[in-house]
Amino acid sequence: MSEQVIAFDPYALPSDAIKEPPATLFAALRQIGPGIILAGTIVGSGELILTTAIGAKHGFVFLWLILFSCVIKVFVQVELGRYAISSGKPTLGALQDISKYRIIGNTLLIWWFTMMVCTVFQLGGMTGSVGQSLNMAFPQFGNLCANVASSISPGLGGYLSTRAEFPWALVACIVTIGLIYGGSYRRIEGITTFLVVSVTLITVLATLALGFTVYSPNVAQVLNGLTFQIPSDGVADAFAVFGITGVGATELFYYPYWCLEKGYARYVGVNDGSPDWERRARGWIRVMHLDAWSSMVVFTLSTVAFYFMGAAVLHPQNLVPQGSEMIATLSEMYKGPYGAWTQVLFLIGAGAVLFKTLYLACAANSRLTVDFLNLIGLARITTSQERAQKIRLFCCIFPIVALGFYIFQRDPQLMVKFGGMAQAATLPMMAFATMYFRYRKVDQRLKPTLATDILFWIAVIAISIVAAYAVPDALMKFVNSLKA
Fold it and tell me: How many alpha carbons fall within 13 Å on the CB side of residue 416?
């Protein structure tokens, strides 16, 4: 990590960092970035596996709900961004200060930490899925590793021969550490922008190309999918659709940190009550809005594209991705319309989609964990150098722990569902905390419009209703799966 990166403290608001907001749309577009990182985190196992599976099961029926879910949750995201920019506080610091009674704030921090551990278990499932995808694409590597291991230890070779995806999962772990260890915000943003744009472009083009195959989507069915409807056998799946698409609990925690590292709060400066501060704050909040809604377009395109592939290709064949055949079934989305030669391309793409989420989540979790330890007093951080060193440490720890979880469990679908359940239970807490920030903490000169407030309330209510149904249902199903 360079000295310049070490010396930079994204949580400080020095007066010499104040910067006027961009005056033109083109200049503002050059300042976006946190949302693209968030889009990279969002489009992962949920979109690739679960969204596609629901399309395969129900066809286009839930298209309207996917669009609604992707759009409505952004209103919660931008309120968190508004508070972070105007106060300079990241998510965990804001939660700790939510009440004068410190026990309430610390309880919310522990809630986050518990959810984070569950999502690292989920990242283990992603690590394993990356390994499975790449092993199916390039099985020679796993066989070579098993043969080499046999020459050293027959027991180890035999172990790897029955777990051929492990070497690829290890590679994913090592590459993750290499990308995020000592990586500055700018480096993460640059890598993520390339990956997000590439994956989105390829997925959308593949979906559009369906129009030239026998799996061309029926226009009437697509339009029917835009009408409000929930089939009697799809109530549980409807709640699942809302829960897994769009911005999730982890992304709501991450976004303010990326906004601060981008520099939005530094550019605004400390709130001195002056008209100049208000003008700067409004300007950079507008940039944040542009960032958030631009990313919404990106992750909505990817999510809808995966849903279309499931509904148009897998649904007519009654193929639903599940169990040990999950990846093989998913590959039929490309193999069916475009031929067997595309299977390897899909497997590489699937690995890239999951890996992208894995490395970004590890990078974000490292930042939040260091902040968490500092806030609860388990680690005292007084300089930006100390913060950077501890972030680097956790950038190594999280990928290794995720790999360890996969070696221990080796059931990616169960691991992803477990992490998703923890996020679903946390999402209402974040929604209500955001509501508190909006009405009690944000400088009222920066309050949003009435229309934005109404949509924000709709998002909070929808999130609460879904969680009230989905969390107990998911918990029951998870317990039953363990008994089976």
Answer: 22
Residue among 252, 287, 263, 278 nearest 435 (CA): 252
Query: What is the distance between the alpha carbons of residues 79 and 142, in angstroms, rounded to a whole number?
Result: 47
Per-residue CA distances from 65 to 2, 59, 225, 244, 268 (Å) = 45, 13, 9, 11, 37
Token pair for residue 33?
């970035």
Region for residue 20 given its phi and psi (left: phi exceeds 0; alpha: psi -120 to 50; beta: otherwise) = beta
User: What pLDDT, in 10s, does the model give residues 384-428?
Assistant: 888 989 999 999 999 999 999 999 887 777 787 788 788 888 999
What is the tens place of the pLDDT at every residue in 1-54? 333 443 457 788 888 899 999 999 999 999 999 999 999 998 877 777 788 888
CA atoms within 13 A on the CB side of 379: 14
pTM of the model: 0.91
CATH of the domain at 448: 1.10.4160
Give the count of beta carbons closer than 10 Å to the beta carbon of residue 340. Answer: 10
Torsion of CA 250, 483, 315, 349, to 10 degrees: 50
Report DSSP state, residue 47.
I
Identify whether the C-beta of residue 255 lies closer than 8 Å to the C-beta of residue 80.
Answer: yes
Backbone angles phi, psi at 90, to 5 degrees: -75, 175
Query: What's the domain count of the chain?
Result: 1
For the chain, report the end-to-end CA distance as a whole number of angstroms.
48
Tokens of 101: 């009674």
Cα 184 from chain centroid? 19
Look at residue 115 and give its three-state secondary structure: helix
Domain span including residue 248: 3-483
Residues 123 and 359: their CA atoms lie apart, in Å, by 9
Amino acid (one-letter) located at 312: A
